[in-house]
Specification:
Layout (H helix, E strand, L loop, with lengths): L3 H11 L2 H7 L3 H15 L4 H8 L3 H8 L7 H11 L1 E6 L3 E6 L15
Antiparallel strand pairs: 1-2
Helix pairs in contact: 4-5
């Protein structure tokens, strides 16, 4: 399966209007893309993220495809595992920001600046 970030980049290259269409997408899709981006940035597979978050890989796949919006406890658990925070803003802006690097095997979150 092609990483979501690469797919989006290819689609924007093929069709410049894709970026506008993507921007107009529902919050679920934007959240899915942001979570997938940070997961990839952390070098985690869907299976690894699922195991660390106490979920199953198909759940992560459905979430990253925009198939469903996670409940708050699931979202917070994913953000903790990813070492990230969720930023929401006007005009349906949704961004997941990675905090500083995660520490060794236990993957505790370090404080951010």
């Amino acid at each position: 399966m092609k990483p979501l970030r690469r797919y989006v980049a290819e689609q924007i290259k093929k069709n410049p209007d894709f970026a506008k269409e993507l921007d107009a997408a529902d919050a679920e899709v934007r959240l899915a893309i942001e979570l997938a981006r940070v997961r990839e940035q952390r070098g985690l597979t869907q299976r690894q993220l699922a195991a660390r978050a106490g979920m199953k890989q198909p759940q992560i796949a459905r979430l990253e495809q925009g198939g469903y919006l996670p409940n708050m406890s699931t979202l917070l658990r994913l953000l903790q595992v990813l070492g990230a925070r969720l930023e929401l803003g006007p005009d349906r802006m949704c961004r997941v920001r990675a905090l500083k690097e995660l520490s060794s095997p236990r993957r505790k979150i370090l404080s951010h600046v």
